[in-house]
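Changelog note: in this version the structure field was regenerated for every chain. One regenerated record is shown below for reference.
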Amino acid sequence: MSKAAIIVASGSSRRMGFDKLSADLRGKPVLWHSVHAFSALDEISQVIVVTTPERFDRLSDLGPKLIRVNGGAERPDSVAAGLAALHGDITHVAIHDGARPLVSPAAILAAFQAAENS
């Protein structure tokens, strides 16, 4: 089984009034923490980050399994763009909001385990 993650992070943060994905959290952008939780797992072979080139540039230290794609007009369009970028051997995909940086590796693995068992 081959696993991947799609991190959706192309929104404008209009309701927040500032770019929450770029906000500092422990010296790194919020988006960095969200992506790191997935990219650090050996079980995940591909991490698609649906975001702007500027935001993606701030993730350069997270390794070679990251791929950037442009987002769509609405969240479903962005998820579809991420799905279209997956390699053909992926069997399970986690879709995560880039503005949710507190996801733990244990929670990610538990979600994949639940998907395998269903």
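Spot check on this record: Helices lie at 30-39, 53-57, 75-84, 105-117. The chain has a mean pLDDT of 93.
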